[in-house]
Design a protein that fits this description.
It is a single chain. By secondary structure, the protein is mainly α. It has one domain. It contains nine helices and no strands. The chain is globular and about 40 Å long.
Length: 198
């Protein structure tokens, strides 16, 4: 993983290198759609963990933030990888849409001491990071012209001058869902990706 990232960032790797990073992340995928198998080094559990998903989405974000992230194929693959995580995330989200950072299954495997028995309540860490990174993957993957429109603070899928349904933040991104919106996002298995892409 680190070698591929170094090639991407230091050697200015192209779409093939970006694809290799995405393939490396996907290699940690489980049948439930989540990521595990020690992707995040502090948790060696093979089962999917929200922490591993957060870490994997951070890597996807690095790909999208690289020069190769402008490639349509790279964006589409990043979006597909992110969308594939949604079933797992929906299965472990609490009724109000939050995620625990790890699940109790970590206790049966080597892990950093601070993970203890793996019983953590849902919280902003990792929920906020996961949602933000899913949204970033959707924005970056939505199409070639989208980035320029977002940077200008307009929605590229609407005609210039058309009323925006949701205002963009100062960074050119739609605001994160709040409260019940987040819960509906998870329960509908659409999460932030479909909310941004639609």
């Amino acid at each position: 993983m680190e070698r591929r990232l170094a090639e991407l960032h230091l050697d200015r790797g192209g779409a093939a290198t970006a694809g290799a990073v995405l393939d490396a992340v996907a290699a940690y995928r489980n049948p439930d759609g989540g990521l595990g198998h020690g992707l995040e080094p502090d948790v060696r559990a093979p089962a999917s963990q929200p922490l591993a998903v957060d870490f994997g989405l951070e890597l996807v974000g690095q790909v999208l933030g690289s020069a190769a992230g402008a490639d349509d194929t790279v964006r589409d693959r990043a979006r597909a990888l992110a969308e594939g995580l949604l079933p797992f995330l929906a299965s472990v989200a609490t009724a109000d849409g939050g995620l625990p950072i790890v699940l109790p299954s970590v206790a049966a495997h080597p892990r950093a001491e601070h993970w203890g028995d793996g019983r953590f309540p849902a919280g902003l860490n990792p929920t906020a990071g996961v949602v933000a990174r899913l949204r970033m993957a959707a924005l970056a993957a939505a199409g070639a012209g989208r980035g320029a429109g977002v940077a200008r603070g307009t929605h590229p899928q609407r005609a210039p001058g058309a009323r925006r349904e949701r205002p963009l933040t100062s960074r050119g991104r739609p605001p994160l869902p709040r409260g019940g919106q987040l819960r509906r996002c998870w329960s509908a298995r659409k999460c932030a990706i479909s909310a941004v892409a639609g």
